[in-house]
């Protein structure tokens, strides 16, 4: 099996290199002149994003975000995975438009699936400072995306350039927020969700690797302890000793347990090696290793730390580009992330 993992890792890396080379290549001038005329096509919204978007209008944006994120995470290191999770919950519903930040009855923030989300106060503080320095210029969606990148770096993960230019959405519905994965779905439904977002199976496995840090409430895993899926028995896909350890930690549903049972404060590939040992906390985690469509990717990432970190950066850029609102006719620049502009 090890030789297959190495081959897969090589092919995956080669595939990414080819994509990067194609995007960087520029046709020679005569090719442009001789190219036959075609009807204009609509560019994907993400093509309108740019790492230099605020270079003139708010040149200190990234410094402001970094300073605030760094200060908060110094006080509470558990906030880093929470910001990454908040970013995912935003992008999974209506794209990366800061709809998760809207706060009123019936909004995504009030959904049951959002009850354990954290980091809203940090985003509000960043927004207040950005508004003071660059009024009505920077979207809440861009702030959240940049904060997720900085949180990743501060947790020991990779750095990537964040393209900016997103606008904030005006719609946020509680019923839509409850469709975000909760840790008990099957792999097919997860693959389908990611495909609808424009993400592929590699992105699914790689972004699940964010569970190398962070915690979950015990209520999310209680169904694995007994009568799993109506069997009258515990989940057979979980290691016996690990199961007993979790039971001791989960005397109350409101208790927290680490998503990574071995190196919970280190951004590394232990998440994937844990899956190989039947030590995935959520059933959706463990299924990544037992499903034939995703298990080769798990094994490749488990043995290739550099592959994981480099691809995590790529997949996070793709996540941040999901169904973005751009231009003058879409969305708005909220003055307060909690409310649409009046």
UniProtKB/TrEMBL annotation:
Co-factor(s): Ca(2+); heme b
Cysteines engaged in disulfide bonds, as pairs: 58-134, 91-96, 140-337, 218-250
Family to which this protein belongs: Belongs to the peroxidase family. Classical plant (class III) peroxidase subfamily. Belongs to the peroxidase family. Ascorbate peroxidase subfamily.
GO biological process, one term: hydrogen peroxide catabolic process
Gene3D superfamilies named among the record's database cross-references: 1.10.520.10, Peroxidase, domain 2
Signal peptide interval: 1-21
Compartment(s) of residence: Secreted
Site feature location: Transition state stabilizer: 85
Main location: secreted
Binding site for Ca(2+) 2: 212, 260, 263, 268
The protein's name in its UniProt record: Peroxidase
UniProt GO MF annotations: heme binding; lactoperoxidase activity; metal ion binding
Cofactor binding note from Swiss-Prot or TrEMBL: Binds 2 calcium ions per subunit.
EC number: 1.11.1.7
Organism: Forsythia ovata
Active site: 89 (proton acceptor)
Class of enzymatic activity (EC top level): oxidoreductase
Residues engaged in binding heme b: 211
Keyword Calcium applies: yes
Residues at which substrate binds: 181
PROSITE patterns: PEROXIDASE_1, PEROXIDASE_2, PEROXIDASE_4
């Amino acid at each position: 099996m090890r030789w297959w993992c190495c081959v897969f890792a090589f092919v995956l890396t080669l595939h990414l290199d080819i994509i990067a080379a194609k995007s960087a290549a520029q046709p020679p001038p005569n090719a442009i002149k001789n190219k036959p005329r075609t009807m204009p096509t609509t560019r994907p919204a993400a093509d309108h994003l740019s790492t230099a978007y605020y270079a003139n209008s708010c040149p200190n944006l990234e410094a402001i975000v970094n300073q605030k994120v760094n200060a908060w995470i110094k006080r509470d290191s558990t906030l880093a995975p929470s910001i990454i999770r908040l970013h995912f919950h935003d992008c999974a519903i209506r794209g990366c438009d800061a709809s998760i930040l809207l706060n009123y009855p019936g909004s995504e923030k009030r959904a049951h699936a959002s009850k354990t989300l954290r980091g809203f106060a940090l985003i509000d503080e960043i927004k207040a400072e950005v508004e003071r320095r660059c009024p009505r210029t920077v979207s809440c969606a861009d702030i959240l995306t940049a904060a997720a990148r900085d949180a990743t770096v501060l947790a020991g993960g990779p750095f990537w350039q964040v393209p900016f230019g997103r606008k904030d959405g005006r719609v946020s519905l509680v019923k839509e927020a409850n469709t975000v994965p909760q840790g008990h779905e099957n792999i097919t439904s997860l693959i389908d969700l990611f495909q609808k977002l424009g993400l592929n199976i590699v992105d699914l496995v790689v972004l699940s690797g964010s569970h190398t840090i962070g915690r979950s409430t015990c209520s999310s895993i209680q169904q694995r302890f007994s009568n799993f899926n109506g069997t009258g028995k515990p989940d057979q896909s979980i290691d016996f000793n690990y199961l007993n350890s979790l039971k001791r930690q989960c005397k109350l549903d409101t208790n927290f347990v680490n998503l990574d049972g071995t190196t919970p404060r280190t951004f590394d590939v232990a998440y994937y090696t844990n899956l190989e040992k039947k030590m995935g906390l959520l059933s959706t985690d463990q299924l990544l290793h037992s499903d034939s469509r995703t298990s080769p990717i798990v094994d490749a990432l488990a043995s290739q730390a550099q592959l994981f970190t480099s691809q995590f950066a790529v997949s996070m850029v793709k996540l941040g580009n999901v169904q973005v609102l751009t231009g003058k006719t879409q969305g708005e620049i909220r003055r307060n992330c909690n409310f649409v502009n009046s």
